[in-house]
Amino acid sequence: MMIYTLTLNPSIDYIVEVDRLQLGGLNRMNRDLKLPGGKGINVSRILKRLGADTTAMGFLGGFTGDFIEEALHNEGIPADFVRIRGGETRINIKLKHGGETEINGTGPVIAPGEADALVEKLSVLKEGDLVILAGSLPSSLPADYYEQLIQMCQKQGAKFVIDTTGEPLRRALPYHPLLVKPNHHELAELFGVVIETREQLIAYGRKLLEEGAQHVLISMAAEGALLIGDNEVFHANVPPGKVRNSVGAGDSMIAGFTGTLALGGDFMEAFRAGVASGSATAFSDDLAERSLIEELRAKVSIEKIG
Ligand SMILES: Nc1ncnc2c1ncn2[C@@H]1O[C@H](COP(=O)(O)OP(=O)(O)O)[C@@H](O)[C@H]1O
Ligand SMILES: O=P(O)(O)OC[C@H]1O[C@](O)(COP(=O)(O)O)[C@@H](O)[C@@H]1O
């Protein structure tokens, strides 16, 4: 079984560290790091480290697109992207200044023929494959573009997971995604509410089940995560550690979860591996290495709370 990841708006994540940010002044970097990014690409990088079969797909353009393709190649990750001609893949700035400030680009324009070419590429999908649709929908694509991709997955007999926000997430739910993984802020935003308690989080998570999701994973950064299924709710604590760079923690969680299922694990093992992978990435500069994920897996405690 192959896990395909689709990243419609990849990025180079440019991680910049300064001692103290002076707005309006000259700042000098202590350190910087350029990483291949975008949600699906991050998922593929962790899947590969966990030993699951993965292929990364999406749109890439310009020299920044070349950088990402080369980085994937160097890590032995098969990549099959549509090359776009309307601009360069974006660069997202991740500023570390004691806190974490992110400035994400909008991304290049994707032409209608390029959009259709990606849908066409999904004809390689086979019964039982899993597709992970992850990240924001570029504004140049039609509002139903994720649905076009999902319909192609279903035509080919593949399951799908979707990790996006707002309207594109809502429109995907009636197609019964295997998993959705909003973080607590995204869940509140989806329903236009302020969520203050865990009970409220669970109640809104259940609404996603009612709208069609098969499983709902709500990530809560240092507060761990909730897994909500038809009849049960579980909470996982995060293992101890020092946060270094939490960019990609959510993507790592999806990779840990789906990779474990693909390798034959059950949903509880998948949940444990998901939390361990998310935290291992939060405790690393780049995405997590397998050794740290394995070490943290044993330190995640899961409790049935409903
Ligand atoms: N500060 C942190 N400390 C420990 N684990 C973390 C931290 N931030 C993220 N994680 C882990 O990564 C998972 C996903 O992180 P989260 O920030 O909720 O997602 P996203 O990156 O999608 O916003 C969390 O459920 C947790 O397991
Ligand atoms: O497609 P979006 O929503 O703009 O997100 C892209 C950004 O999200 C990331 O994939 C990180 O996501 P998470 O921290 O939620 O795991 C970065 O690599 C990238 O810069």
TrEMBL record:
- Which pathway or pathways does this protein act in? Carbohydrate metabolism; D-tagatose 6-phosphate degradation; D-glyceraldehyde 3-phosphate and glycerone phosphate from D-tagatose 6-phosphate: step 1/2
Enzyme Commission number(s) of this protein? 2.7.1.144
Q: Is Magnesium one of the keywords UniProt gives this record?
A: no
Where, by residue number, does the polypeptide cross the bilayer?
none
InterPro entries xrefs: 1-PFruKinase, Carboh/pur_kinase_PfkB_CS, PfkB_dom, Ribokinase-like, Tagatose/fructose_Pkinase
Enumerate the Gene3D superfamilies for this protein. 3.40.1190.20
Q: Which residues form the Carbohydrate kinase PfkB domain?
A: 8-283
Name the enzyme group at the top EC level. Answer: transferase
Q: Which reaction does it catalyse?
A: D-tagatofuranose 6-phosphate + ATP = D-tagatofuranose 1,6-bisphosphate + ADP + H(+); beta-D-fructose 1-phosphate + ATP = beta-D-fructose 1,6-bisphosphate + ADP + H(+)
Q: Which UniProt keywords apply?
A: ATP-binding, Kinase, Lactose metabolism, Nucleotide-binding, Transferase
Q: What CDD domains does the record tag this protein with?
A: FruK_PfkB_like
Pfam families the record matches? PfkB (PF00294)
In which domain of life is the source organism classified? Bacteria
Matching entries from PROSITE patterns are given as:
PFKB_KINASES_1 (PS00583), PFKB_KINASES_2 (PS00584)
**According to its UniProt entry, what is the function of this protein?**
Catalyzes the ATP-dependent phosphorylation of fructose-l-phosphate to fructose-l,6-bisphosphate.
NCBIfam families cross-referenced by the UniProt entry: 1-PFK, pfkB
Per the record, the similarity remark reads: Belongs to the carbohydrate kinase pfkB family.
UniProt-recorded name of the protein: Tagatose-6-phosphate kinase
